[in-house]
Design a protein that fits this description.
This protein is an alpha/beta fold and about 280 residues long. It is built from nine helices and nine strands. Helix 1 runs parallel beside helix 2.
Length: about 280
Amino acid sequence: MIDCNAVRFLLGCRRSGVNFSSCITLGSQELSFSEAGLAEASQLSRNEKVPVPDLKTSRDLFTFLGAETFNEMDFSDYEGADVLHDLNSPVGDQLSEKYSVVYDGGSLEHIFNISEALRSSMRMVKLGGHLIMQNPSNNWFGHGFYQLSPEFYFRALAEENGFQIVRIVIHDNTGLWYEIKDPNEVRQRTELIGVDRLFTLVCARRIAIKPIFESWPAQSDYSDLWNKGDRRIESRNIFRKLVARMKQHTPPAFLRFVRRHFGYFYRAYSLSNKKIFTKVKDF
């Protein structure tokens, strides 16, 4: 499903230089936005062109973005996909390094063998091309097999696998966007507690042709602990340890009351945590 946030992100990617000349989508993506929403997405992305209001299909959208070659990959052709493949298994060599843009509008979370699906998605990107994704993060319980965290993208789409993240943001249904810091950079986990359903938008560029997942990615705080004996991310934070111990001895009903009515105490786990989340205004 391609909504207004996805359109805004795609338009922003084009404005920043992403080449859409050859594209493939994972799954046959439906468009879900109004003419007014389309105009707003164009304005917010500071796009130099106003999208025409009669976009009916994802092919129309990607053709507008500059696609001369456009394909849709799916398990079957019941929605009109022209590349049939089960992403639980590796793609063939004929699709390797074929596309300037590989776009996932919410398919990876439905594929059980997600590491192989992501590897195949990365393999299909040309050198200098981009992998662009919109996947569910918080509060999509039961939607698919997975809800994906920022750490998943930062560790997988890394230089050792031939990729570099250009932009990664989260958004809710109100259209507010927040850029996310790499957990390895801020030296803590990027955790959220809240009721909003959140999506993650990712744009990553292929900077080198390397074996993908030659060694499996590891969560950054565990990597530091294993490789350096560095416990700073979690265990040296005395305040967090004290709070955790207090929670163990506090009645659950009182904790629920505090969480509902005194959000201040949980702002470290909210979008108000400016160390991790920054409002996006330029994309």
